[in-house]
Design brief:
Blueprint (H helix, E strand, L loop, with lengths): L2 H32 L8 E6 L4 E8 L9 E5 L3 E2 L2 E2 L6 H9 L3 E5 L9 E3 L5 E3 L7 H23 L8 E6 L1 H13 L14 E7 L4 E2 L2 E2 L7 H6 L1 E7 L4 H14 L9 H7 L2 E6 L16 H12 L16
Parallel strand pairs: 3-6, 3-9, 9-10, 10-13, 13-14
Antiparallel strand pairs: 1-2, 2-6, 2-7, 4-5, 7-8, 11-12
Length: 322
């Protein structure tokens, strides 16, 4: 083969390889982009509360490592299937997990599979849901505290960032959840260990003024809870007393949150209090069952805007006991 012809053939061969590379590059980039960390399946977890209740929970692991937002879902007194339990929050939990978050959903004492309490004499006592007293509802804060201890462990293992904690409660669970948020923000830090003040956002769905003798408004006496945390209130405007309670709670919070600037973009950036009074008589976790209401979408966007997009303000830290 003449030298000039050989050079021409080589140039064509190189140009062909370059063309193939350029054609396949977008496909390779798309495949690389589509590779996301796998989502682990939900797992059943049994915890023991401070007062020895055997607490059944479902844990939905996140997949963003130390940037993972942890979410605690607190079910209500009743759900679409009857008595309230962690099952009522399953679809929302899966949705939030798909967003990359780590979600923990307990059966509160007396509900679902959390019905056994170990007595000091070593015997087990069955907790009857319909026999729960006001003191039992107050002690449900111990259930949420046990969940947080579990999440602290996951934080120290690098699976999530407890500093981005979000609590979402439904009717009764809104009372339990926000009272625990108040507790979390009332625990003083130790010189060598941060113990609380981890909740940065909460969502109250159909919050009542009180549940079985346990009020909700005392939590809002805490200035941090009332005005310094991102908050969302959701209720069905046709739900009578529940709608009225939700509106009162929102107005109480509004007085302590910042006024929004006139510029729409700046207002959207700093807004930290949201109200959705939906045109329905549904309330609590039953709101999740209506796809047209898009409650899961509202919550998902709230978590993104107020936690995921602000994660740099709350860097991960090891919370192991020194």
């Amino acid at each position: 083969m003449p030298i000039s012809l050989f050079k021409q053939f080589r140039r064509l061969w190189i140009a062909g390889l370059l063309l193939v590379f350029l054609v396949t590059l977008p496909v390779m980039a798309q495949k690389q982009k589509s590779k996301k960390p796998k989502i682990a399946p939900p797992e059943n977890v049994t915890l023991t509360t401070k007062d020895f209740v055997s607490l059944h929970c479902v844990y939905y692991p996140g997949n963003q490592g130390k940037k993972t937002v942890p979410v605690i879902l607190v079910h209500g007194w009743e759900g679409p299937r009857g008595e309230g339990s962690s099952r009522d929050c399953q679809e929302l939990a899966l949705r939030l997990q798909k967003d990359g978050h780590a979600v923990m959903v307990p059966d509160l004492r007396g509900h679902g599979s959390s019905t056994i309490r170990r007595l000091p004499n070593g015997q087990d006592k069955v907790i009857e849901r319909d026999q729960l007293r006001p003191q039992d509802f107050r002690e449900m804060q111990l259930d949420v505290e046990a969940v947080k201890k579990f999440l602290i462990k996951k934080n120290n293992e690098g699976e999530l960032n407890i500093e981005l904690l979000c609590v979402i409660g439904f009717d009764m669970g809104a009372v339990v959840g926000i009272n625990w948020v108040n507790y979390d923000w009332s625990v003083p830090p130790l010189p060598t260990l941060k113990q609380g003040q981890d909740v940065k956002a909460f969502v109250l769905v159909s919050p009542p003024q009180a549940h079985r003798g346990v009020p909700i408004n005392r939590a809002f006496e805490n200035e941090d809870v009332r005005g310094n945390l991102s908050a969302m209130i959701i209720y069905g405007r046709q739900a009578g007393r529940t709608a009225a309670a939700g509106k009162r709670i929102y107005n109480s919070l509004k007085r302590s949150h910042r006024s929004l600037p006139a510029d729409p973009e700046e207002a959207a950036r700093v807004k930290d209090l949201y109200l959705f009074d939906l045109n329905t008589s549904l309330q609590g976790s039953k709101l999740l069952a209506s796809r047209s209401l898009r409650v899961a979408d509202l919550i998902s966007e709230f978590v993104k805007v107020r936690l995921v997009d602000r994660a740099d303000q709350y860097p991960w830290r090891d919370r192991s006991v020194p």
